[in-house]
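Whether sequence alone determines local backbone shape is best considered at the level of individual chains. The sequence in question and its structure tokens are set out directly beneath this paragraph.

***
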Amino acid sequence: MEKENASMKDFEKYLDLAGFGPGQVVEATVTGVDPAEGLSVDFGGKQEGRIQPSELVREPSSYKVGEKITAQILKINDEEGYAMLSELRPHRRMAERKVREAKDSGTPVKGYFVQQVSGGYIVKLFNVLDAFLPGSESLLRRDAEIPQGEHDFLIIDYTAGRRGRIVVSRKALVERQIQTFFESHKVGDVVEAKVERVRSSGATLKIGPLTATLPREEVSHDPSVSIHDALKEGETIKVKIVKLDPAQRLIEVSLKALEPDPWQTAAEKYRVGTIVRGVVKNIVPFGVFVNLEPGLDGLIHVSEIFWSSKKVDLKKFFKPGQMVEAEVVEVDPEKRRLALSYKRAQGDPWENVMERYKEGDIVEGTIVKVLPTGLIVEIEDGVTGLVPKSELSWNKVSDPGKLFRERQSLKMKILSIDSQNRRMRLSVKQTTPDPWEKAAESLKEGSVARAIVKAKLNSGYVLQLKDFSVEAFMPSSHAPEEMKEGAEIEVLVLRIIPERRKILVSQKKLEEMKDYEEYKKQMGGSQKTLGDFLKK
């Protein structure tokens, strides 16, 4: 029985040895690594397998114990109990087959640059095959550094055999990729792109071998979004193609095209007549831009800010970031225009003017225009009134421009309100007592008063009585000499006509009276009275 068992073991040993032989390709497991001697492997036979460094595809140190590789048995040394194997030879045959298939099918292969030689570069394919890359097919300048890492190449020439030759190209591959891209893509397609450079005017992106441009205005529907915040160099993003020109190899892409366009729903969302809230974005001479939502701005034209037509500095009334309410007056999605009205949102001030103002009220206002016939005065935005020339002063006013100026503040009395016709009649003089009442009570014929020369007429002088703020007239014959405007004099009241608001005075008669009084003193008195003097 023991003899039979021994014979069976010898037979199994024979079968194991007979199963492996030179030329056979096997799967081997790395059992040891020696950078100088190579690898020790277990290929399934009774012998230890050895692979010298020259028969490896990679550097010995790059292999790990337990790693599985494909190798070919070169020879078996039964006496010393080891077998020599090669990883390189089966790998080379496999690589040659793949190169041949890639040449026939036009499939790109991967490889890396080894060195620069005359006329081009040596490229290693599949770690075992040397290929030649002509400089004209490299897409590299002659003085450029050799690229690192793996790259794709197209086989443009292949000759098998010991003296076989492999020629590869990067240019042909890129040209084919470019052609394929333009043939397979159209405007509206969404593609992935890598951000290369970001500038204030826009960004450049890489889509495969092609360079695409992303203009600043295509970053977002919201123009306030910073391009530097939206894009980071090196990141991969999705964009939509908006322009394609194969002849110029031009591609323009958009980020905002992937966002919902707020103008598509603007007409429905912002109906004419509705009151909306927005943030003041920009202030310009012709109006105020208000942001209603990202990518959608409305304009409040300067004519829709105030009910009045006064010219003002808008920056004194509005600040960027300020929240305002406005009424929608026009929406045009095609022209991407939305018009707003600030004043309509505040309401027409004439609609309830009778609730705020009554006839007889004393109000304050600002002169907006000086006319020959009076003043236009604004009491509040949109509510103006007229002060007729006759209501400017208790005295006669010939030229309102000499007494009043634009933007001057005034107190006025409301004489009448016509809300239907948007009119209001005002008075400046009636905010103070009528000085003629005091003058009529205080002044009599024969009274002496102080006066200032206001104006010279052909027939005489217009005087202002200082203590009474009324005017008097002095004929030229009652002035002892030529007088200048602004001169202060004393005059004698000759006559008062209250119903006509007129006073007649004389400087000459006053001097004569003073002379007569002096004469009486010198003469020791007299029975004649002042009345007698005046009658004379």
About this structure: The longest strand covers residues 25-34. Confidence is low (pLDDT under 50) at residues 1-18.
